[in-house]
Design brief:
heterotrimer; A alpha/beta (365); B alpha/beta (260); C alpha/beta (409); A: 365 residues; alpha/beta; four-stranded parallel sheet; 50% helix; globular; disordered N terminus; B: 260 residues; Nucleotidyltransferase, domain 5; four-stranded mixed sheet; hydro-lyase activity (chain A); 2-hydroxyglutaryl-CoA dehydratase (chain A); metal-binding (chain A); iron-sulfur cluster binding (chain A); iron (chain A)
Chain lengths: 365, 260, 409
Amino acid sequence: MTTASADRDPVMILLEAAASGGAGWPQLYPGSRPFGYFCSYWPEELILSLGREPLRLLPPAAAGVPARLPAYCCLPARACLAAGEAKEYDFLAGAGFAHTCDTIQCLAGIWPHRHTFMFVPPVTMDSPEAGTYFKAELERLWRRLAETAGVQSDAHQLQRAVVLMNRIRSLAGQLDELRPQLPSPLVAALMRAGQLMPRAAYAASLEAALPALAVKADGVGERRRLLISGSILENDGLYVMLEELGARVVADDTCTGYRHFAGLVNERAEPLAGIAARYAARPPCPCRHQYLEARLDYLLALARRRSAEGVVLVVRKYCDPHAWDAAAAGDRLREAGVPVLVLEMETSTPGGQERTRLQAFLECL
Amino acid sequence: MAYYLGVDIGSLTTKVALIDQGGMLLARAVRRSGYHGRETALQLVDELLREKGLMAGQIAGTVATGYGRVTFPADREVSEISCQARGMVHLFPGARTVIDIGGQDSKAIRVLPGGRVADFAMNDKCAAGTGRFLEVMAQALEVTVAELGALAAGAKGRCPISSVCTVFAESEVISHLAQDTPREDIVAGVCAAVASRVTSLAGRVGPEPEVAFTGGVARNRGVVHALETELGRPLLVPADPEVTAALGAALVARSLTGGS
Amino acid sequence: MAKERRYLPLRSTRYLGRTMQRYYLLTRYQRLWGRPLKRPLAWVTSGAPVEILRALRIDPVYPENYGAICGARRVAPELCRAAEAAGYSPDLCSYARAGIGAILRPDLAPMGGLPRPDLLVTCNNICGTVLKWYEALARRFNVPLFILDTPFVTGELKQHTVDYVLEQLRGLVGGLERLTGRRLKPADLQKCISLSNEAVRLWGEIRNLCRHRPSPLNTPDLFVHMAPIVVLRGTAGAVAYYRRLYDEVKERVRAGQAAVAGERYRLLWDNIAIWYQLFRFYHLFSERGACFVTDTYTGGWAAGLAPGDPLESLARTYTAIFLNRSVDFRVRQMVDLIRDYEVDGFVMHSNRSCKPYSLVQEEIRRRVMNETGVPGLLVEADMTDARVYAEEPVRNRVQAFLETLEMTV
């Protein structure tokens, strides 16, 4: 498992995985058929416990235009569907959708793969009945996944998967602590790699890379300290531009960034209940409801904890949940004296307009 | 005596402003540049200096702004939002809100007394509410953009243009023409459509009086009038709206090098 | 020569006007008469279990219905603009934007806007938007927000899902009891459920009458006359209204009267109405003898509550509504309607405001066309925001579609 990391720079291994965007899996990791999934509410542990590797499906850069989704649907969904229709995901053993937004619900319904699974976590996370339901839904999913894979679901394997994922989350947490001192695109890529490569190899490489990264950490310097919040960022373009403009992402609340890793599963709990409990306690995505101000409280506390001078709320065009929260979070943060920029982006590669906005925002700070 | 240059390389035109230590605008130049913004800008600077009998060494600072700002060899590049705010407050010290409608985008900026930006909003990725929208509509109406202002002034009514999409709005204009709606009334409708989009943008920054209006589209009397109607107040409009961002850039250059 | 009249108006429309006027008048002054009677006012989503509220004497108000009114009165664009200026993206649901705009600009809003709520009840069986919308309302009004989470039904409705919703309903009852200081009396709930069921049954019967050739109603009639089944669900007023409407429609069937004179094509409509074009748009069809004999949208209010434990039947019914169901379910539903109503073609409104309804339409269109051989047209518009409606392209498509029908029927 860890032979590769013995003779190669672990950071390079991770960056290679991040750059592959997932589509390069068959070339990078031949011999394994990963299971593709959307949304960070998909329980990777269940896939691992059945002997498969989970692969987060991110929109490929040069995707076509799918006929089955209208133009007013977000680009991540359209680009993934186009790639799916072009048979670019045929190397997957299956595809999993965790119900989050209306668009994911629809994408799951038209996804072109024989083995497509939809799993519906509760939206309101704070009640006992939600916990009971969540666990039952996980049990059902696990059973169906095992049946399709033709293997027995095994509590011992699940426990091992929980331990591995917890290790990854702890390592990602250490990386996140170093974030203010490291170049932002580097941290973003290392986090993304954790969703795009075999998990044990990721854990080994990240563990090996961390000491060197800690040494490299150089402080924020004159850079403007920013908090970035948003949904999917499938490449580092925004982070690169922010560094160019003299900013540093000191805190991250993106769905493909630290939010994906936040929180641990209680290893002493029954595994499915533990997995459900982790999701319920994790910093929520706009599609979940813990209590009314949970997400805004979290963002404000995160901004303060990391001494962010400003917050960039990234809204992917046609992403309703984030657009809604951008209005509310914008008001709340500004009231608290934290400057906010709502940045609408169609792709995750910023262009001239985004540059102007970001630069003007930084000039205002 | 030290001089400062502001260079604004926009999507369609390049603008250059030259000021002296006192912030006085000595010379300005505007030229359509298309894709050759950098070359045009270098040329314009050269011509300006020659015209004023200045040597390059006498320029104490240059700031570039606009879409092409990163391509130009300046001391510093600053976003057009900050430059526009600075330039407009220099011209109108009482201005607290600046509306800028350029070729490809429109902006609403709330400014602080010294010309610093308090908040801003830009149009989304769509041409409605920009100069490009007016160009497309002018083409459909078979008039030049410059004629739109005079036409709007002669309108008896205002024919509503409801589509937000430029392509759909164009087909609306064409069908109004087909129904023999007076050209003037359609133009008034087009101007009102731009004004309503931009007013909504201004709403996002919480506009405070006085409101100043600049950018190439501020030359269009029809849009000025429609915007004044929507906002319910007279607007401060500079005599030379194309170069206010370049002027602001020159002013930023002056403060960067300590000359104030 | 006078233009031939192809559209037959309903007499019941007068009673509808009176019924709705009365409802909105009472609603408007509810703050005056409701407070002394300790009747709280709730803003609720169209798929909320209103029977529980009514049984506890909570008066419901429907922002979605109000959004449709803003659309039909063509003030939605102005109201949407007000919301957009406050930071709400123009890509969000136009009911929500118009509703928030009406709070910000009561001077532009029909009836001066809706009265301020004492509580909010949202149920996500229709979309995820209603969660975010009601969160925004809860912040604005600073009143309690009750959320009923009805998980999306991927295939069949599972017992653990029913149990989850049932538990939440019990919690909702408890919360509302505390808020009102009243106990929910089983008899009161049963009475509301019975009234609900009776109105729903009548509504279903009225829709069924359109199986006749020629159809006694055109779908725009259903759009207009659905208002009471939405806002008066669970009341005697709704039952009385639909009895009257049923009688009139039945009479039409007996007399062989057609909603669209010279009915040539029978069409199926999918998605919410284009409220600001209610007559102009559908006229494009009726002038060529095309009648919409059924639709998927107003059918959403034709599902009755199963007998048995009232809360469990509420849990099942409200979770199983069609917008909370899979693509397979929705294909099946359309195929059945096409068969039952002898439909010649279907028109789908690709509604920018309603993603869960619209994003899967192209897939459904293909599958339904494959299964039935009936042609389907997709038209892009918005339910209330007229700014995205493009008259000419729509007219062209409709014309081309009707020409296709001419050749196939």
